Amino acid sequence: MVASTVTGRAPERPDKMRVKAKPRPAARAELLAHVADVSPPTHLASIAPLRIDPAEIRTLRPKVAKPPPGRIEPNRKRRIAKEHDPIGARLDMHGLDQDRARATLEAFVRRAWDDGHRAVLVITGKGKVGHGVLKQRTPEWLADPALREMIAGVSVADQRHGGEGALYVALKRKS
pLDDT-based confidence at 149, cuts 50/70/90? Predict the structure, then answer.
């Protein structure tokens, strides 16, 4: 007698379609009734009591924002480009992401100003198709109030120093 090794196929299951369960109208009504029982606080003291006497609160005067640094004067830019006024330091930001580039730029400008340099070169790179993120954001970062006090002007560098992918930053004298 020969035993059969062939087994029968399992019966096919019909394709099940998943249907999202819709909330019952009664459950929805219960939920809305519960929400209606919770009333919002009527005033701020019910959330957190004030620990300051309202009479002691003074209004803050808005700080007058200084304008962003302007362009370097043409004669000074020419002297920097021809290196009659020395470029005190150079910063190359190729390969840095925005966060690291900003922190590096701020530290660089502060140190150059502390060292008494009058002009520095910041190389941002052009980016792809001339629309680099660092190229666009660097003037904004230099206009930040923390650095604005140190900067006399910013201009695009001469071709021999990087052209459109670099900036001359003229620094004020340290007082």
Answer: confident
Tens-place pLDDT, residues 16-46:
555 566 655 565 566 566 555 555 555 555 5
Going by C-alpha positions, the residue among 90, 76, 102, 68 that lies closest to residue 170 is 76
> Which residue intervals of 115-166 are DSSP H helices?
133-142, 145-148
| 166-171, strands of its sheet edge to edge | 89-92, 119-123, 166-171, 151-156
Determine the Cα–Cα distance for residues 83 and 155; give it in Å rounded to an integer: 15
Closest CA to 172 of 104, 119, 123, 122: 119
Structure token digits, residue 59:
């209004």
Q: Which residues pair with 92 in a beta bridge?
A: 123
Whether pTM > 0.70 for this model: the answer is no
Question: What ranges in the chain are assigned the alpha helix state H?
Answer: 25-37, 74-81, 98-114, 133-142, 145-148
Asked if 171 contacts 152 with a C-beta cutoff of 8 angstroms, the reply is: yes
